[in-house]
TrEMBL record:
The keyword Acyltransferase applies. Residues 22-92 form the N-end aminoacyl transferase N-terminal domain. GO terms for molecular function: arginyl-tRNA--protein transferase activity. Residues 150-180 have a biased composition (Basic and acidic residues). It catalyses: an N-terminal L-alpha-aminoacyl-[protein] + L-arginyl-tRNA(Arg) = an N-terminal L-arginyl-L-aminoacyl-[protein] + tRNA(Arg) + H(+). InterPro entries: Acyl_CoA_acyltransferase (IPR016181), Arg-tRNA-P_Trfase_1_euk (IPR017137), N-end_Aminoacyl_Trfase (IPR030700), N-end_Aminoacyl_Trfase_C (IPR007472), N-end_Aminoacyl_Trfase_N (IPR007471). Residues 289-427 form the N-end rule aminoacyl transferase C-terminal domain. Keywords: Acyltransferase, Transferase, Ubl conjugation pathway. Residues 150-206 are annotated as: Disordered. This is Arginyl-tRNA--protein transferase 1. Its EC number is 2.3.2.8. It comes from Mus musculus. Belongs to the R-transferase family. Involved in the post-translational conjugation of arginine to the N-terminal aspartate or glutamate of a protein. This arginylation is required for degradation of the protein via the ubiquitin pathway.
Length: 516
């Protein structure tokens, strides 16, 4: 693999004020309120820090709910995969999949307390309307007009950067890529999925059934009792047979990667594919993936087939502002945006859209074939993603969380995410993580809550030095303190200050805020 170089800075265009649109949860026409910005490109570290402040992306649009005003407050939720133990209902879903793969058995009915979906957000209509609107609103023509002049200055500027030139004016590298499609310049060639755990050898016979194991334990117990009784009757010391091994709980990997018989009815393969049209595997499966998405939207969200356009699908689930990164200490697949495809007998039946970030795997969306709803693919994919996070952690120790998007307590059908424990919710005021068990009593009383119980606690990551914020203006990057000295409109500072407080000091100093 070629040596890794640091990515160029994130470039964002912030939309001042709040946006109101129809809520995808309670259907309030203008009840959903959020702040938003268009990310022409973004580093994985910047996005990691943003989601740790309540932001979330939908395509290249990055938004943050106005928590104390929106109709259905959306709290960022993360699960601890390293401590995760599957519940009884989770185990039922995994066993159901194994039975289907091994023998083709189709379970009748769903498991008790089983959620409808797993990582599927239901605010699709609002997201699409907003993305379509902002795709036009975003001044891409102005940005693309800069390409010519930037290209001529690029080489000269890069030389000054390498010589550690002035900290006042820094020209971002590879800014041309940011102003275009935003696709990674280097396609990822690694296609890996979760690897079976130890002992998951497909050539070995299947694990013994629980019923058979119970019978074996009972038989051994009866033999022990009979032997002890006979020894006592003959006045001999009691010599017990070896005790049956205790039934240790199986790990998540044991449950997922149980070996199948050679004559298994079905074959399931999970592939991790970079979300980039420069990747051949992503390209070759695009049409099949889009057809599956259309089928899902029509059946699950009752959309008309003609509404599901390729351009909409591409903007929402294929386009990503995240730049692919391959640091030496990172996961083998690198960081960035991916599609985790579930291939059953040679066809795609589900796709999980994922972002792999420095500290977590972040679930973006899931769509699946409604014909296989009996397999509870929402729950199954979430468990696979948790196991995948654990696998990535083995090489990249700091990558140890699984972000499930937003937890919406005021919407009962969105509470299922709280079933993946242990998990935390993000305090919307101080941006610290609080165990969900401590949050639920407060949420039962009020849909908006500050979870941090320390009344003196503040947002430690808030913007403290506005002049250090970075802006991109007239083909150059500069601190806001320099930029504002040349501006005649003092009202502009209100929007810049709003942006700085929302993204925090760290991101405001790293990301480039585009100014016209």
């Amino acid at each position: 693999m070629a040596s890794w170089s640091a990515p160029s800075p994130s470039l964002v265009e912030y939309f001042e004020g709040q946006t109101s649109f129809q809520c995808g949860y309670c259907k309030n026409k203008l009840g959903s309120r959020s702040y938003g910005m268009w990310a022409h490109s973004m580093t994985v570290q910047d996005y990691q820090d943003l989601i740790d402040r309540g932001w979330r992306r939908s395509g290249k649009y990055v938004y943050k709910p106005v928590m104390d005003q929106t109709c259905c407050p959306q709290y960022t939720i993360r699960c601890h995969p390293l401590q995760f133990q599957p519940s009884k209902s989770h185990k039922k879903v995994l066993k159901k999949m194994l039975k289907f793969l091994a023998k083709g058995e189709i379970s009748k009915g769903n498991c008790e307390d089983e959620p409808m979906d797993s990582t599927v957000e239901d605010a699709v209509d609002g997201d699409f309307a907003l993305i379509n609107k902002l795709d036009i609103k975003c001044d891409l023509k102005t940005l693309s007009d800069l390409k010519g002049s930037i290209e001529s200055e690029e080489k000269e500027k890069e030389k000054s950067i390498k010589k550690e030139g002035s900290k006042e004016f820094i020209h971002p590298q590879s800014i041309e890529e940011k102003l275009g499609s935003g696709e990674p310049s280097h396609p990822i060639k690694v296609h890996i999925g979760p690897k079976p755990g130890k002992g998951a050898d497909l050539s070995k016979p299947p694990c013994r059934k629980a019923r058979e194991m119970r019978k074996e334990r009972q038989r051994l117990k009866r033999m022990q009792q009979a032997s002890a009784a006979a020894s006592e009757a003959q006045g001999q010391p009691v010599c017990l047979l070896p005790k049956a091994k205790s039934n240790q709980p199986k790990s998540l990997e044991d449950l997922i990667f149980q070996s199948l018989p050679e004559n298994a009815s079905h074959k399931l393969e999970v592939r991790l594919v970079p979300a980039s049209f420069e990747d051949p595997e992503f390209n070759s499966s695009f049409n099949q993936s889009f057809s599956l998405y259309t089928k899902y939207q029509v059946a699950i969200h009752q959309e008309a087939p003609e509404i599901c356009e390729k351009s909409e699908f591409t903007r929402f689930l294929c386009s990503s502002p995240l730049e692919a990164e391959h640091p030496a200490d990172g996961p083998e697949c690198g960081y960035g945006s991916f599609h985790q495809q579930y291939w059953l007998d040679g066809k795609i039946i589900a796709v999980g859209v994922l972002d792999i970030l420095p500290y977590c795997v972040s679930s973006v969306y899931l769509y699946y074939d409604p014909d296989y709803s009996f397999l509870s693919l929402g729950v199954y994919s979430a468990l696979r993603e948790i196991a995948f996070t654990r696998q990535l952690h083995e090489k990249t120790s700091q990558l140890s969380y699984y972000y499930m998007g937003f937890y919406i307590h005021s919407c009962p059908k969105m509470r299922y995410k709280g079933q993946y424990r242990p998990s935390d919710l993000l305090c919307p005021e101080t941006y610290v993580w609080v165990p969900i068990e401590q949050c639920l009593p407060s949420l039962d009383n009020s849909k908006y809550c500050r979870f941090n119980q320390d009344p003196e606690a503040e947002d430690e990551g808030r913007s403290k030095e506005l002049d250090r914020l970075r802006v991109f203006h007239r083909r150059s990057a500069m601190p806001y303190g320099v930029y504002k000295n040349h501006q005649e409109d003092p009202s502009e500072e209100a929007g810049v200050l709003e942006y700085a407080n929302l993204v925090g000091q760290k991101c405001s100093e790293r990301m480039l805020l585009f100014r016209h």
